[in-house]
Amino acid sequence: MLKALKTNGSRGTPGAAKPRARAGDSRGPGDGELAPGTGVGASIVLLQSNSLPGLVQRELERMILAGDIVPGSKLNEASLAKLLGVSRGPVREAFRALEESGLVRLEKNRGVYVRQIPIEEADDIYELRAVLDDFVGRRVAATASPEAVRALRGDIARMEKATARNDVDSYLAANLDFHDRLVTLAGNAKLLLTYRRLANELRLFRRATLAQGDTLSVSTREHREIVDQIAAGKVAAAGRALYDHVMASRERMHRLYAASDKPPMPRVPRPGTDK
Q1: What is the architecture, at CATH level 2, of domain 119-206+214-256?
Q2: Looking at the whole model, is its pTM more than 0.85?
């Protein structure tokens, strides 16, 4: 009989904390989780469209990004297998996938650890993302169909609803979908793979910065501007809006860590400008 992934319980084992229940969490089988009482039949249907290692990967990813497993934690294969109700093989495969996505690191003869991204590395990632996003904005503004623009506006509508509820988690999910959609629309498979890894590595930073003050409303406004420029077919302006949005996110990260001894890095000029 197939076992369903377990998604509730108490904390206790280091590196294998159980996920916290969140009010309003409406995710269901399509998100790689089973609702209570769905039974073995639903488990079989879910596993027919999602490999077990894939489901384990998604649950571990959720736990890491929700902060249930903190950066730097060592992941215990046996404990996680028991927690999720699976054998150790799928957990081991999930570890390899999470390493490729940039969320964990595998250290020979030591084990698997949730990655800690130092602020200096986050700076490098933001700068690279800004350059890539400039390219993405230009490409999508030149090629986007009306259907694509509607889909992007749909992501923004989700951000607006999350902002109204001050729901950082839902906002982050819509934000990630928006940027992933943009890069997909750019039509470069290699870029998409690179971008997704960079986005994964920044997700913990991004959640923390979005929780600051009125950042949700500011970020939503920036996203609206991006789509307006894309919808108007303004190639250079769309690229600039995306570049500026990423660098603004970087600056918000530095404000969050302003109490540290390391001063913020200087702003990097947008490609093709000296400002």
Answers
A1: Up-down Bundle (1.20)
A2: no
